[in-house]
Design goal:
181 residues, alpha+beta, FAS1 domain, 8 helices, 23% strand, globular
């Protein structure tokens, strides 16, 4: 038996009413009528990701028709990388490596969390997710939490799921997915 408090009910109503039903991300409304880039630039939690996408020349791609599923690392996720890594990746000579890393966060599909969970169930508890960058992620879940294991065995958690976009969906993640090194 669950007890619903007034504050919990208010939170549920406030979340449901935000930006076409989407959750807020980085303190900003996310609109289903806008594309991935149009929404991402408004998130205070994704300034590093936006800078990286610009440096890699992927803005036009992610504004395209899609559909795309983007596992969007937060600024805090980038801060977990070794000191100097982000600055080095943003240098013009690292564009190829940066592009590979970023495209390992993108899947050529519109995969909402329930679809991902269904694929995980269909595959007996783990589903291999091929990315546009050639990375193979292993998706699992526990309750409502979807986890991705990158090719280096690092676990990345989806912290905000199902942020619908006009050209796909964003799932906010707490780590940067890295290709096999």
């Amino acid at each position: 038996m669950y007890k619903i408090t007034t504050s919990a009910l208010t939170l549920c109503i406030a979340t449901a009413a935000t930006a076409d039903g989407n959750p807020e991300v980085g303190g900003a409304a996310m609109y289903e009528s806008k594309n991935i880039i149009e929404n991402a630039v408004n998130s205070a939690d994704h300034t590093t990701l936006v800078a990286a996408v610009k440096a890699a020349g992927l803005v036009e791609t992610l504004q395209g028709e899609g559909p795309f599923t983007v596992f969007a690392p937060t600024n805090a996720a980038f801060e977990k990388l070794a000191d100097g890594t982000v600055a080095a990746l943003l240098e013009p000579e690292a564009k190829e490596q940066l592009t590979r890393i970023l495209t390992c966060h993108v899947v050529a599909a519109d995969a909402m969390s329930m679809v991902i969970k269904g694929m995980i169930d269909d595959d007996g508890g783990a589903h291999v997710v091929p990315t546009l960058g050639g990375c193979m992620l292993k998706a699992t879940y526990d309750g409502d939490m979807i986890m991705l294991e990158d090719e280096n065995g690092r676990m990345i958690n989806v912290t905000i799921a199902d942020v619908e976009q006009s050209n796909g969906v964003i799932h906010v993640v707490d780590g940067v997915i890295l290709p096999r090194m």
